[in-house]
């Protein structure tokens, strides 16, 4: 059984939001820890202890099918385990404890810890590591038998103990029976009134039980997050890890140190990410695509061979195979760009479908529109989709040609192969193959300039 402690406030974050709901690598801390636990066991065997902002924390991970325990008052890590006891006991051996603010821990390291505990005679095994700067962490006091004698919290440590660089990761594996007996004997700390889970070690020792240590050389994995500086450091590590994974899978990343790729993003082989690209949320990029410099894609699907030129902002959209977007295109939620379509600079699309091989190459707003195949949208075309109260749809059938600077007042339908004269304000449906001209006819007034100038001084002078 795995228990994840996630009930704490996270005072040192100085935030209105619970610490485990802060994001690193594009996912909340609690999601990282739960997802790692799910690689070890089934969701019914994972218990998350919630308390501070319990509903919000629960909502983040409930979809994964894990269980929850409730710690009404946050009286320390030991107290959190006491609150989870009834739900943990039926599951028996072993009990793996994880902290919700330690998101980098990997599955292989946890498996090593479980194996070490299974092989040891000890009642528990503590995952430790050596840090150059151990500030803030609990220090490991070793016993003569090589195991752990006690863990002393930074705040309670004397000068000699502060010099110890081996720290408690907050990840442990216990044999349940001796563990619960020892936890029952843990008393609250006089200063803070908190029950420290770390005090269990001393209690186990006092009861004659052994406690082993597994020291991991990969100290980066056990970094805990208590403040925003540590959050940024962990975010960077997660992003480096993700970018290396993608490169190993055949993605070219130019200046990888500038890429921001969230944990759940997928990118296909032979795709290229130019510098400063951000791929966020559940974005999926197919194979052989190019994502231009400084483009930001959120929850977006990019199909194979598509090209996004620099400086595009795309959210919750689908970019079809072989299409070309940008530079400077904004694509808002609900938009689908079909195969081979082109969208150019300063074009904004919202909740719009642009059909196969259609083009909107410059300066347009297309909102709530259904646009067929082979359509040409001229520069400056605007769908007027909002009447001040409601949004209306614009339908443009295959091969329509919309001249530059057209104003399409929705609701509106343009028929197949129709043609809209440049500068038209179109308010009525246009039948297939028709030409619509919705502007006043041009008038030329002969000699107008000369007549207008007549009262001028120059004109009043006698001709020489
Ligand atoms: C803890 C350890 C410390 C270790 C460090 C590793 C204790 C007493 N100390 O210190 O030895 O080096 O982690 O990162 O355990 N939580 C609850 N309920 C509570 C209090 C905390 O669920 O009442 C949860 C928090 O949400 C958090 C985790 O437990 O996810 C750790 O709590 P935190 O206060 O950050 O412990 P540290 O002071 O970092
Ligand atoms: Ca912590």
Give the key terms:
UDP N-Acetylglucosamine Acyltransferase, domain 1, 39 strands, 10 helices, alpha/beta, Spore Coat Polysaccharide Biosynthesis Protein SpsA, Chain A, binds calcium ion, binds uridine-diphosphate-N-acetylglucosamine, 20% helix, 2 domains, 464 residues
Structural description of this entry:
The chain is of the alpha/beta class. The chain has two domains: 2-222, Spore Coat Polysaccharide Biosynthesis Protein SpsA, Chain A, CATH 3.90.550; 239-436, UDP N-Acetylglucosamine Acyltransferase, domain 1, CATH 2.160.10.10. 20% of the residues lie in helices and 28% in strands. The chain has ten helices and 39 strands. The strands form six sheets. It has a 16-stranded parallel beta sheet that branches. The chain has a nine-stranded parallel beta sheet with strand order 14-17-20-23-26-28-30-33-36, with no helix packed on it. It has a seven-stranded mixed beta sheet with strand order 5-4-1-6-10-7-11, sandwiched between helices. Helix 2 links the parallel strand 4 and strand 5. The longest helix is centred in the middle third of the chain and has 21 residues, at 228-248. The chain starts with a strand and ends with a helix. The mean pLDDT is 96. Calcium ion (CA) binds next to loops.
Q: Level of helix content?
A: 10-25%
Largest sheet: 16 strands, parallel
Question: For this structure, what is the CATH homologous superfamily of the largest domain?
Answer: Spore Coat Polysaccharide Biosynthesis Protein SpsA, Chain A
Please, how many helices?
A: 10
- In whole angstroms, the N-to-C terminal distance is 108 Å
The level 1 CATH classification of the largest domain is Alpha Beta
Q: What's the CATH topology label of the largest domain?
A: Spore Coat Polysaccharide Biosynthesis Protein SpsA, Chain A
Overall geometry: elongated
In terms of DSSP E residues, the strand content is 25-35%
Report the mean per-residue pLDDT as an integer. 96
How many strands? Answer: 39
Radius of gyration: 32 Å
Q: Per CATH, which architecture of the largest domain?
A: Alpha-Beta Complex
């Amino acid at each position: 059984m795995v228990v994840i402690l996630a009930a704490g406030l996270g005072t040192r974050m100085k935030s209105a939001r619970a610490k485990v709901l802060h994001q690193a690598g594009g996912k909340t801390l609690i999601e990282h820890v739960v997802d790692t636990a799910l690689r070890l066991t089934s969701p019914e065997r994972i218990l998350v202890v919630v308390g501070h902002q319990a509903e919000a924390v629960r909502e983040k991970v409930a979809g994964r099918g894990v269980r929850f325990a409730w710690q009404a008052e946050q009286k320390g890590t030991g107290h959190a385990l006491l609150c989870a006891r009834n739900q943990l006991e039926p599951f028996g051996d072993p009990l793996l404890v994880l902290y919700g603010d330690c998101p980098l821990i990997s599955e292989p390291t946890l498996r090593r810890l479980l194996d070490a505990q299974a092989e040891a005679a000890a009642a528990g095994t503590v995952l430790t590591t050596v840090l150059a700067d151990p500030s803030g962490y609990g220090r490991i006091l070793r016993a003569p038998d090589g195991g752990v004698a006690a863990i002393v919290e930074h705040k309670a440590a004397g000068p000699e103990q502060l010099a110890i660089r081996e720290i408690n990761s907050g990840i442990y594996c216990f044999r349940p029976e001796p563990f619960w007996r020892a936890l029952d004997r843990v008393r609250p700390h006089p200063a803070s009134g908190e029950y420290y889970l770390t005090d269990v070690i001393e209690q186990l020792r006092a009861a004659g039980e052994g406690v082993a240590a597994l020291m991991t050389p990969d100290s980066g994995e056990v970094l805990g997050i208590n403040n925003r500086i540590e959050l940024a450091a962990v975010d960077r590590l997660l992003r480096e890890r993700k970018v290396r994974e993608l490169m190993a899978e055949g993605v070219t990343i130019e200046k990888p140190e500038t890429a921001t790729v969230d944990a759940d993003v997928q990118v296909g082989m032979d795709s290229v990410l130019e510098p400063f690209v951000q791929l966020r949320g559940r974005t999926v990029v197919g194979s052989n695509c190019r994502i231009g410099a400084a483009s930001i894609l959120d929850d977006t699907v990019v199909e194979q061979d598509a090209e996004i030129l620099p400086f595009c902002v795309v959210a919750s959209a689908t970019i079809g195979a072989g299409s070309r977007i940008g530079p400077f295109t904004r694509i808002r939620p609900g938009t689908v760009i079909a195969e081979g379509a082109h969208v150019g600079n300063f074009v904004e699309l919202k909740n719009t479908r642009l059909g196969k091989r259609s083009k909107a190459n410059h300066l347009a707003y297309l909102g709530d529109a259904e646009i067929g195949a082979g359509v040409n949208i001229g520069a400056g075309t605007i769908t007027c989709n909002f009447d001040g109260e409601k949004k209306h749809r614009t339908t443009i059938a295959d091969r329509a040609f919309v001249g530059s600077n057209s104003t399409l007042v929705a609701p509106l339908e343009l028929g197949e192969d129709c043609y809209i004269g440049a500068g038209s304000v179109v308010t009525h449906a246009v039948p297939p193959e028709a030409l619509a001209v919705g502007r006043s006819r041009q008038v030329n007034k002969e000699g107008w300039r000369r007549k207008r100038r007549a009262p001028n001084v120059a004109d009043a002078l006698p001709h020489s």
